[in-house]
Specification:
Elements (H helix, E strand, L loop, with lengths): L1 H15 L3 H19 L4 H11 L4 H18 L2 H13 L3 H18 L4 H14 L5 H11 L10 H6 L5 H4 L16 H20 L10 H7 L9 H6 L9 H6 L2 H22 L5 H16 L2 H11 L4 H19 L2 H12 L5 H12 L6 H18 L7 H18 L8 H8 L8 H4 L3 H17 L7
Helix pairs in contact: 2-18, 3-18, 4-7, 4-16, 4-17, 4-18, 4-23, 5-7, 6-7, 6-8, 6-11, 7-8, 7-23, 11-25, 15-16, 19-20, 19-21, 20-21, 20-22, 21-22, 22-25
């Protein structure tokens, strides 16, 4: 029964969901029309807001590109492939692969949401080794595991609230920072984290397709336009050497000493960073770790360059789609549409149901601004100001603000299951050499979305405010 429902949603997505880029264009039109109707913004005002926002995610987009190619490059290292070979001996059936990949991804994303790349790499390599794996469903398993990040160490909203002189304090909405003990370390978040770690692998294991038919990765590779890689990276690197006597250029190109000198210097810096900043694991540090680790694993500059070339062959979607989502963000920000949404929520909310409104608002706005930090910068002030407008004061103020902020974060993360934006991180790794689109994957996530939404709403609504800290 569950499998049949999953297949129905998958067929519906394949019929009605357009390409991810078209999805972004449709969202742009919807937000533009909403700004003109709700905010009475003129066409040229909306056009200006769209253009201003177009460049807001350039840094973030470049970080995503580097995260994908540096993470994928590590997977191409012979050492890692040997370890995955050893692991594949113990995983002999597709259902074991689905459960293991989803559980591993859920745990990895608790450390950093960028580690979804590691999960994607692991899943692809296991799919090449274990027969009968339904590959589109496996991609859905990887993407579903991503929702745990909001309860973990890289959750951007609680980290922002605990940052000195953040924009909310400068605007007078907050009087002081909110310690992570009220957000990430709260009993509310612990309950959400535990339910996610248990439910995500279990639900995806229960929903697994019965047969892979023609959906195995090896079959899809044979039917694709991209040929399989015949030569190893080492063989391709050796083919670049000049014939005859060794040249100085070859010595440098294939120098282990030169590459290790840089990589070990990077490792020393990482030691200094973590010694000085504790467990600060931001996006730049994550990319830097991937870079240095890739250099160590590939040993020579030539081999590492070849691995990066192969890893970067499928990142075009990130490069050109991120600006369009940034444009949507610009419309929401500069026309005041997002602020109006927050104020509308406050008008109908009460102290009892306010976190539920915050959860639903976070999930809805995520379709237009699929970045937790960016979304909170837009709607956070309105939502948190609404806490003050509801007349909540005294010892309940900080717990209520913390619960509302986390509710926004939970809603934003959960609605990613219906929003293909961050699938752009997974697709370049897992779809290399095959023909597959977001619509082939997203249908598998509808039932998990409904299950997790019910569970999270119950936790947010019924968890006592007195238990927050």
């Amino acid at each position: 029964m569950i499998e049949r429902l999953g297949q129905i949603f998958t067929d519906a997505y394949r019929r009605f969901m357009p390409d991810a880029f078209v999805f972004a264009i449709v969202l742009t039109v919807i937000c533009a029309l909403a700004a003109m109707i709700v905010m009475s913004s003129g066409f040229f005002e909306v056009l200006e807001a769209w253009y201003q926002g177009f460049w807001l995610l350039l840094e973030f987009g470049m970080q995503m590109v580097l995260l994908v190619i540096t993470g994928y490059s590590i997977a191409l290292a012979p050492f890692l492939r040997r370890q995955i070979d050893k692991l594949a001996v113990h995983l002999k059936t597709p259902r074991q692969v689905y459960f293991f990949v989803t559980l591993t991804g859920t745990l990895l994303c608790l450390v950093s949401w960028g580690w979804i790349i590691i999960t994607a790499v692991l899943a692809r390599e296991l799919a090449l080794r274990v027969k009968g794996v339904h590959y589109p469903y496996l991609i859905a398993c990887v993407y579903c595991s991503f929702i745990s990040w909001v309860t973990g160490l890289s959750s951007s909203i609680p980290l922002l609230l605990n940052t000195q002189d953040n924009f909310l304090i400068e605007a007078g909405i907050l009087q002081e920072t909110i310690p992570t003990g009220f957000t990430l370390g709260s009993t509310l978040n612990m309950a959400m984290l535990l339910s996610t770690v248990i439910l995500v692998p279990t639900v995806m294991w229960l929903l697994r397709p019965g047969k892979a038919t023609d959906k195995e990765l090896t079959v899809m590779l044979e039917a694709g336009d991209t040929p399989k890689e015949i030569r190893s990276i080492a063989q391709e690197a050796d083919a670049t050497r000049l014939p005859g006597e060794k040249a100085w250029s070859d010595r440098l190109n294939h120098s282990v000493v030169l590459q290790y000198l840089i990589a070990l210097s990077g490792v020393i810096y990482l030691g200094m960073h973590f010694y000085s900043n504790g467990g600060d694991l931001n996006l730049n540090i994550m990319i830097f770790i991937f870079l240095m680790l890739g250099m160590l694993l590939h040993k020579t500059p030539m081999r590492y360059g070849i691995s990066m070339k192969r890893a970067s062959s499928n990142v075009s979607a990130i490069l050109f789609q991120f600006p369009f989502y940034a444009g949507i963000m610009g419309i929401m920000m500069y026309t005041g549409l997002a602020r109006e949404l927050g104020e509308l929520m406050a008008a109908y909310a009460s102290p009892d149901n306010f976190p539920v409104f915050a959860f639903l608002t976070g999930g809805l706005v995520n379709f237009a601004i699929p970045s937790a930090g960016g979304e909170f910068a837009v709607i956070g002030p309105s939502v948190l100001q609404a806490v003050n407008d509801l007349g909540i004061s005294g010892d309940q103020t900080i717990p209520m603000i913390a619960r509302s902020a986390m509710a926004i974060a939970y809603g934003e993360s959960l609605s990613n299951l219906l929003q293909p934006f961050f699938l752009l991180l997974v697709i370049p790794v897992m779809a290399a050499g095959i023909k597959i689109q977001a619509r082939d994957i997203m249908g598998f996530l509808v039932i998990p979305f409904m299950v997790f939404m019910c569970v999270q709403l119950l936790i947010i609504y019924f968890w006592p405010l007195a238990w927050i800290n």
